[in-house]
Specification:
It is built from eleven helices and 19 strands. The chain is an alpha+beta fold and 447 residues long. The radius of gyration is 24 Å and the shape is elongated.
Length: 447
């Protein structure tokens, strides 16, 4: 079946068309964006860098991506920008609607009307391609809050104008996670197609990775993925230009305590939910450091210990009231085993820790639907340093057939990805294009 026929049959998608809500003047020439955003080049930049940004297609594209705010749930504008950019590069572009983050997963609009809040995955392949792509190159276009404007400047250590332009720092929300990967992937694919016009490549840029992966899950459950023919998927995330051998699994849960309110002068008339939840949380906090034989969560040589983070605790209404309720939210990074095995260990630990408390204490997993085991990835391409990572990605959200190769690679460091100092260098971007091309070339050898 020709790819065009397959896409026409997919009810969840719509072929890209011009947006009635342009993204931040995204139709302007690249140079005019400097006036629109006023933060393109920092005070420490020099004219050579400004000229480079103006005339280097990779850096200009990256600049425009980062300049468009796309916090999870608000990805409409950046999606339209990417769709129009790829269409202008002779790609067939499919815009796949993804439900609003305030709606349930199945609540995709039934009509084709576009609104300023419509979220799209962007799927694209060369217009000349008559077969389904055999290699899928993918990353995400959403970011965490808050929006930080694009800027570029010399490194703080620069002492002379002889400093290489490649060392200049590009900053802004998403510059690393993951618009650096998006830009590098696009130009790696464009350069590959220039040398090999028949390369069977597909691009996928999804929304919602930072909030549970609803974009990738929507694509995974679509007709495009069901009928796909790719043997390789190349994921883009900040990996310091290293090839990732795998990442930890993920699990979340709440610990809830239900007591009885009373005047704090007569606490024996009530049941303190805080007093009840404390031993449970103390036990939970230790589970990653205890051996399985003592009721702890499993570890592995590859990923180390399972780690837990008690991220939030909420309880009580006033200091002079015995708290009737308490709750804590916990995130788990699994080093081994399955999510269901971890759930059972956690339930048992909380039960054992609260046998003698007066209030009722329970574990609730219902508000944390994202749960998966550690994800092992392929590293069989020479020329890369290899490492495991602790953070989560969209890798487990994409269902693939047995035997499909999965690679994880990209520019920049996860250590700055969600911070105020999110940034990478010009060199990082250029090297990432080379790295993605190397992975693509290795995959093409399997066609």
């Amino acid at each position: 079946m020709k790819l065009t026929s397959l896409l026409a049959a997919a009810a969840v998608v719509a072929v890209s068309h011009a947006s009635p809500h342009p993204a931040l003047d995204q139709q302007q020439a690249l140079g005019s964006l400097q006036e629109a955003h006023r933060t393109i080049v920092g005070e420490k930049a020099d004219q050579s860098l400004e000229d480079l940004l103006q005339h280097d297609p990779l850096l200009s594209f990256h600049r425009d991506l980062v300049s468009i705010e796309s916090i999870s749930g608000n990805e409409h504008d950046v999606g339209i920008f990417v769709a129009d950019f790829l269409r202008a590069k002779n790609f067939t572009v499919v815009k796949q609607k993804v439900a609003s983050v305030k709606k349930k997963k199945g609540d995709v609009p039934d009509n084709d009307d576009e609104t300023p809040k419509t979220r799209y995955n962007i799927y694209a392949y060369p217009s000349s391609l008559q077969e389904q792509p055999s290699i899928l190159v993918t990353s995400h276009i959403d970011t965490v809050p808050p929006f930080i404007p694009y800027s570029v400047h010399k490194p703080e250590s620069a002492t002379s104008r002889s400093e290489s332009v490649d060392d200049h720092v590009i900053a802004g929300r998403g510059s690393v996670d993951a618009k650096g990967s998006v830009a590098a992937q696009v130009y790696a694919v464009l350069e590959t197609l220039e040398a090999n016009p028949d390369a069977k490549l597909g691009l996928l840029f999804v929304v919602g990775e930072e909030i549970g992966g609803d974009g990738m899950k929507t694509f995974s459950e679509s007709e495009i993925n069901f009928k796909s023919a790719y043997h390789t998927v190349i994921f883009g995330e900040p990996t310091e230009a290293k090839l990732v051998s795998g990442h930890k699994g993920m699990l979340g849960f709440e610990v809830l305590a239900h007591g009885k309110a009373a005047h704090s002068g007569y606490p024996w008339l009530g049941k303190s939910a805080v007093s009840a939840i404390l031993p449970a949380l103390s036990r939970v906090d230790q589970l990653g450091n205890l051996p399985v034989s003592q009721g702890g969560l499993p570890s592995s040589d590859k990923y180390g210990n399972t780690t837990l983070n008690i991220g939030t605790i909420r309880a009580g209404v006033a200091t002079n009231v015995v708290p009737a309720s308490a709750r804590a939210d916990v995130a788990v990074r699994l080093a081994a085993g399955t999510a269901e095995e971890a759930r059972e260990i956690i339930r048992r630990a909380v039960k054992d820790a609260t046998r003698e408390v007066e209030a009722d204490v329970e574990v609730d997993f219902s508000n944390h639907n994202e749960a998966y085991s550690p994800q092992d990835l392929d590293t069989d391409v020479d020329g890369f340093e290899v490492m495991p990572v602790n953070y989560g990605t969209d890798v487990p959200n994409l269902t693939v057939r047995d035997g499909v190769k999965r690679y994880l690679y990209g520019p920049g460091s996860i250590f700055v990805a969600h911070g105020d100092d999110e940034a990478l260098t010009v060199r990082d971007m250029k090297e990432a294009v080379k790295g993605f091309k190397k992975l693509i070339d290795a995959a093409l050898e399997r066609d």
